[in-house]
Amino acid sequence: MTDASISMVYPQPTSNTKRCEKLWFDDGSIVLQAGQTQFRIHKSLLARSSTVFNDMFLLPVPPEGAASDSEGIVEGCPVVHMQDSDADLTHLLEWIYEHPAKSTKNRRVPPTGDEIPATEGRGF
């Protein structure tokens, strides 16, 4: 996934655009589009699962009104146009959603209170 450009799409997909029903979540926060297929997924899960996605999400979003007439937002979510094929992106997203523990295993998140031994930080 290289050189992904961020752009917006209007709420109603064009007649050529289709949604991947298996990877279209009503509570998703971002829409990825590969070819003519759109995926509404969770930005936070992708960012935790992949440094590529994490870095991509750190890029600034174009200011509102900077998009052309054929671009906008889908159901309130920004659209990221991917250079990957829809089949490749489908396989990647399916793996991330079916294996969330494996895809986030090496994330750098501070431990929760339940994960810290009771003696740690108490001078023992």
Task: Write up what this structure looks like.
By secondary structure, the chain is of the alpha/beta class. The protein has a domain at 18-61 and 68-98: Potassium Channel Kv1.1, Chain A (2-Layer Sandwich), CATH 3.30.710. Helix content is 25%, strand content 19%. It has four helices and five strands. Strands 1-5-3-4-2 form a five-stranded mixed beta sheet. Strand 3 (30-34) and strand 4 form a beta hairpin. It is globular and about 35 Å long. Mean pLDDT is 75; it is low at 1-12. This is BTB domain-containing protein.
Note the topology.
Layout: E1 5-7, E2 18-24, E3 30-34, E4 37-41, H1 43-49, H2 51-57, E5 79-82, H3 86-98, H4 100-103
Parallel strand pairs: 2-4, 3-5
Antiparallel strand pairs: 1-5, 3-4
Helix pairs in contact: 1-2
Domain BTB: 26-105
Protein name: BTB domain-containing protein
Region (Disordered): 103-124
Radius of gyration: 18 Å
* Low-pLDDT regions: 1-12
The helical percent reads 25-40%
Total strand segments: 5
CATH topology of the domain at 18-61 and 68-98: Potassium Channel Kv1.1, Chain A
Numbering strands along the chain, what is their spatial order in the largest sheet? 1-5-3-4-2
The biggest sheet amounts to:
5 strands, mixed
Region (Disordered): 103-124
Pfam families: BTB
Organism: Panaeolus cyanescens
Protein name: BTB domain-containing protein
In brief:
This protein has 124 residues and is α/β, with parallel strands linked by helices.
Offer a few descriptive terms.
single chain, 124 residues, Potassium Channel Kv1.1, Chain A, globular
